[in-house]
Structures are given as structure tokens and as C-alpha cells.
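anyone seen this seq b4? input:
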Amino acid sequence: MGKQSVLGNYKLRVVHTPGHTSGCMCLYEPDHRRLFSGDPVFAGGTLSDTASSGSVSDYVNSMQRLSSLKTRQMLEQEGYRERVEKPQS
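predicted toks r here
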């Protein structure tokens, strides 16, 4: 993960997520387990197109990186989605 910034009571970590474009990024708040995904994660759940600087293989790698984060809530470009937590083994 990239640089971390503090905003009030929140620690936000930058996660570089190229794919849709080469400069896409998400913000992850580990204490509250929130992911602010912006463009990399679409509300419909699929990539419809890549910009000229984007790449499908980068997108797949970015989605794998995001899926490894422990998130409770994801705020996408068009709303938010609660993640159902799996019981810890």
C-alpha cells in the first residue's frame, strides 16, 4: 500500500489501482475497514471500458489487490455496499 494521510479521525491509505486508467487509485481506511473505490470499482461490478492509458490485465491485478483488503464497507463511484463479514476461523 502507498502513502498514508490523516484526515480528522481517519487514517487513509492510498492504494494504486491501475486498469480503467493508469492513474486510478482507491483510499482505504483500515480502522473502520472502509474502501473508497471511485472509478476502479463500478456499481454494476464490471469494467465496461479502459481509457487509452488503462489495461485489462492491470485492472485484474488491481481487483485482486483490493479483494485482499479486509473491508466492511465499500463506497463506490455511485453509492456504497455493505460487505457481509465472514466468521473468523
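The helical segments are 56-67. The chain has one domain: 4-82. kinda curious what u guys think
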